């Protein structure tokens, strides 16, 4: 009689060996993905999806192309989105496991010492915008799936690769659109992440645009106008005071501390010698999983209204830009967490804790649809180490290699006949 544990261990070794043998190919695949820009904004991401589909076809993976109607994309503030689904069906029964990574990314910005679209390799790291977040997991997920199928072991259920292009704008036209269209409903899912922790919860995010109206006037006679910038400064002071109080609101989720508010952009005025008649600022409020989003938004609106009420001649318009709910861990995610932790410890030589992250992601949309999921993939211990959203974003290639093995082994467990 064969020992099933010994059989599975042999399968893990064969998966690892296949990934090692094809690792140079995996790196070239990632380089090709980095070399096609997906700056969002402006968000012209259909060309990258087309290139990805071509590369996948060379592996024998047919990618369904699901273009989002142009009117929806343009109304959203982007130029083009084509989401991809690769479906791999195995034996009857079993569960469907989806692997999701996003191809859109913020523009490179300044300060790079290497070509942000070069995919250059130096001292064991691959550099480029989206090298770590999250084109790296286009590679890890694809090559984990290829390794699994090369194994030739009996499998049940199905595997889906979801490559989407709207994480930077909130995911509603990425995973959200695929789910609303009824194009997918997996039983479990793993989304792009980093290698040294498995994330089961994350913050929510509220983004708002605040327009402060005053009255323009010549700078030589400022008393004939109402300075919208002074009004904005007073409102910002009240918001920052509100932010100071957030540090005392603590989350019980490991990895998440407290809520916080950031004003990331301010525009206004017409010229140096004109009293500004309008100032617009955009704020980002991160919400811990325990918070009620409606109450958070109401409190911010009330704070702004109270501040404006004491400013003669100042009126304010407030527009919600985004409301992304926090990701709460669903009970059904246990098989994912257990498998990733077990294989992560074996391959990385250290515990892989299950925890939350202060980021927000489009994984919440799967959770909101009742699909248990976790965040795990190729990357360092922290966002700071990856340089994501900063100059010289990079990925350690050994993290890519080991994370691909963790995913492949996990799929072997989840889809075993």
Your description of this structure?
The structure is a single chain. With 417 residues, the chain is α/β, with parallel strands linked by helices. It has helices at residues 4-21, 23-34, 46-57, 70-76, 135-151, 175-180, 228-246, 293-309, 334-348, 363-368, 383-386, 397-414; strands at 63-67, 82-89, 91-102, 121-122, 125-127, 156-164, 188-191, 198-202, 204-213, 217-218, 260-268, 274-275, 278-287, 315-324, 354-357, 373-375, 394-396. It has a six-stranded mixed beta sheet with strand order 1-2-6-3-7-16. It has a four-stranded antiparallel beta sheet with strand order 11-13-9-14, covered by helices on one side. Strand 4 (121-122) and strand 5 (125-127) form a beta hairpin. Helix 2 packs antiparallel against helix 5 (135-151), helix 5 packs across helix 12 and helix 7 (228-246) packs across helix 8 (293-309). The longest helix is centred in the middle third of the chain and has 19 residues, at 228-246.
Model regions low in confidence, pLDDT < 50 over at least 5 residues: none
Secondary structure class reads alpha/beta
Q: Quick check: average pLDDT? A: 95
The percent range for strand residues is: 15-25%
Strand order of the largest sheet: 1-2-6-3-7-16
Q: What is the helix content?
A: 25-40%
Shape descriptor? elongated
N-to-C SSE string, H for helix and E for strand = HHHEHEEEEHEHEEEEHEEEHEHEHEHEH
Rg over C-alpha atoms, rounded to the nearest angstrom = 24 Å
The largest sheet, given as strand count, sense and whether it forms a barrel, is: 6 strands, mixed
Number of strands: 17
- Terminal Cα separation, in Å? 18 Å
């Amino acid at each position: 009689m064969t020992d099933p544990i010994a059989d599975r261990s042999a399968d893990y070794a064969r998966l690892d060996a296949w990934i090692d043998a094809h690792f140079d190919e995996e790196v070239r695949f990632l380089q090709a993905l980095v070399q096609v820009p997906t700056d969002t904004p402006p968000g012209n991401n259909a060309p990258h999806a087309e290139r990805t589909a071509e590369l996948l076809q060379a592996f024998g993976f047919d990618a369904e192309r699901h273009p989002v109607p142009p009117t929806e994309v343009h109304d959203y503030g982007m130029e083009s989105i084509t989401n991809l689904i690769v479906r791999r069906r195995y034996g009857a029964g079993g569960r469907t496991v989806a692997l999701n990574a996003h191809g859109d990314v913020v523009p490179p910005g300044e300060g790079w010492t290497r070509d942000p679209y070069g995919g250059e390799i130096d001292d064991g790291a691959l550099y480029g915008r989206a090298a770590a977040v999250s084109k790296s997991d286009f590679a890890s997920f694809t090559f984990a799936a290829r390794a699994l199928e090369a194994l030739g072991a009996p499998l049940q259920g199905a595997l889906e690769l979801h490559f989407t292009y709207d994480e930077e704008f909130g995911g509603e036209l990425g995973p959200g659109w695929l789910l609303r269209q009824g194009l997918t409903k997996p039983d479990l899912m793993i989304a792009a992440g980093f290698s040294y922790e498995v994330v089961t919860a994350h913050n929510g995010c509220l983004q708002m645009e605040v327009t402060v109206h005053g009255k323009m006037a010549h700078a030589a006679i400022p008393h004939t106008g109402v300075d919208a910038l002074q009004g904005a400064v007073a409102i910002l002071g009240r918001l920052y005071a509100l932010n100071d109080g957030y540090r005392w609101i603590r989350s019980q989720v490991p990895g998440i501390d407290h809520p916080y508010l950031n004003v990331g952009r301010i525009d206004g005025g017409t010229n140096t010698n004109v009293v500004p008649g309008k100032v617009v600022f955009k704020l980002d409020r991160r919400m811990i999983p325990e918070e009620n989003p409606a109450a958070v938004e109401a409190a911010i609106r009330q704070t702004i209204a109270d501040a404006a009420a004491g400013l003669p001649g100042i009126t304010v318009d407030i527009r919600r830009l985004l409301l992304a709910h926090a990701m709460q861990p669903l009970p059904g995610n246990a098989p994912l967490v257990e498998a990733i932790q077990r294989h992560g410890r074996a391959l990385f030589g250290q515990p892989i804790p299950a925890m939350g992250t202060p980021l927000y992601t489009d994984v919440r949309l799967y959770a909101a649809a009742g699909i248990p999921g976790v965040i795990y993939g190729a990357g360092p211990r922290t966002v700071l180490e990856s340089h994501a959203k900063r100059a010289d974003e990079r990925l350690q290639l050994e993290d890519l290699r080991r994370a691909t093995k963790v995913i492949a082994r996990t799929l072997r467990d989840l889809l075993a006949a």
